[in-house]
Design a protein that fits this description.
By secondary structure, this protein is α/β, with parallel strands linked by helices. It contains 4 helices and 12 strands; from the N terminus they run ααβαβββββββαββββ. It has one domain: Rossmann fold (3-Layer(aba) Sandwich), CATH 3.40.50.
Amino acid sequence: MERRGVFPEAKAAEASRVLAERLGDLPEFSAAQRVVLYAVIPGSGELDLRPVFDRLRASRRAALYPRCLPDGRLEFVEVPHLEALRPGRHGIPEPGGAAVSLRPEEDLVLVPGLAFDRNGVRLGRGGGYFDRTFAPGGGPSPQLFGVGYSWQLTEPLPFESHDRAMDGVVTDRETLRLRTLRSGESH
């Protein structure tokens, strides 16, 4: 089975294109005024969201990117062009400029992960930035959709009370809409 980092470049580019089309078909994506994307960590093999960025810009909607804060949370900045991203904390490309507040009823957040299960539980890189930023019980939050390759869908993953499950998962092969797990719920 092919995995990130060894996934052939042509297949990765095709998967990114297909993912952008799948997202474009989602009512949640179409309704979002702004969409939070992530910048690919160099050498990580993550799905490249440039085709999604291009789709947003073509429809004159805003693309936001996260910036890591020292307290372990994220803030979000509108990015008019990808050249505005610079290496930041942990080598992740980040935007400069003024942060904006997310609007739960209007924004959609696309979240990377190492793996997702069919309950929406996400395995991240261990920093906890998305979990702290969108903590369960922390008030209204935009919908969070995990994005990745189809092979990143896995058997059930462990879920702890501080984890924030995804509202959906979109891969290059399927779309899952899920009920978000809240603190204390089982899956």
